[in-house]
Amino acid sequence: MEWVRGEPIGYGTFSTVSLATVSNTDSGEFPPFVAVKSADSYGAASLANEKSVLDKLGDDCNEIVRCYGADRTVENGEEMHNLLLEYASRGSLANNIKKLNGEGLPESTVRRHTGSVLRGLRHIHANGFAHCDLKLGNILLFGDGSVKIADFGLAKRTGDVTASNDDGLQIRGTPLYMAPESVNDNEYGSEADVWALGCAVVEMFSGKTAWSLKEGSNFMSLLMRIGVGDELPMIPEDLSEDGRDFLSKCFVKDPKKRWTAEMLLDHPFVAVDLDHGDLEYEEEEFAVQFKTEEVSTSPRCPFEFPDWVSVSSGSQTQFDSPEERVTSLLTDLIPEWSVTDNWVTVR
């Protein structure tokens, strides 16, 4: 594929996503625009993992973003690793919901999007992978109203052990979406994706994160709430009975008793067909037009709120003592925990 890089449309800690124009579209094999995720050698491992996973998942699932290949370029004297991905003209669900000023989406829209994400998860899990960072920021909205799962930089084979040193804890993904077994036992499997889906459903419907954050909240207190005791994420009271029951199947502390994506696809909350006219109305009413000039930037350390993005899978942050580890987690600010892209090893 021949392509020309355009304006940046998003930044990660170690990668930049740009809109690119495809030069050779006569064959119809490629669309006129693609999203190019680029990183230098420091972020190359994450891009390589993402391409490997997407290649193994194939192109036969409409709910997973398509990969058109990868290449390398030399720009400003530096070698760049590029991943060529399907372009979502309406951005992520996270950005769209932020523009609704604290409001969520209509329940019928939430049901439709949830069903789409579940079909994507079913395909991912059936092929032996776990996404490990499912969140609204990694669910992309396309011009026809469809949604697709994106960003497989942290995806892993289910059953593969997430390495953790004796003196450290490895955090993979986004704290607000982490499952109890991930916090307690460093387990990141398909069950954790289902828990994260529940958190995403709450946020889609309410416009607020599933875990309420009080003044003075910090990283450690959030992990304690997730991993210790019986507290569960918030289930909106004004959600339908089907919706509340659906979330109760996602928010089960014991991963062995949590419903699978396959089981949830038969739940009444998503096992519905929307009238096509209603679908078009909702898309017109709630669509937020994508603007390339609105570029979200990520900080370069974990506690530059509100747009915190954690360190990529290719790097580690080390601390020499438990005191330094705990001290690094303290802050007087109220964090925005919903925007992290990768993981960090705390030692």
From TrEMBL:
Residues holding ATP: K37
Keywords on record: ATP-binding, Kinase, Nucleotide-binding, Serine/threonine-protein kinase, Transferase
InterPro entries according to UniProt: Kinase-like_dom_sf, Plant_MAPKKK, Prot_kinase_dom, Protein_kinase_ATP_BS, Ser/Thr_kinase_AS
One MF annotation (Gene Ontology) recorded for this entry: ATP binding
Pfam families: Pkinase
GO biological process: signal transduction
PROSITE patterns given in the database record: PROTEIN_KINASE_ATP, PROTEIN_KINASE_DOM, PROTEIN_KINASE_ST
Domain Protein kinase: 3-270
Entry's family note: Belongs to the protein kinase superfamily.
PANTHER family in the cross-refs: CCR4-NOT TRANSCRIPTIONAL COMPLEX SUBUNIT CAF120-RELATED, MITOGEN-ACTIVATED PROTEIN KINASE KINASE KINASE 19-RELATED
Annotated protein name in UniProt: Protein kinase domain-containing protein
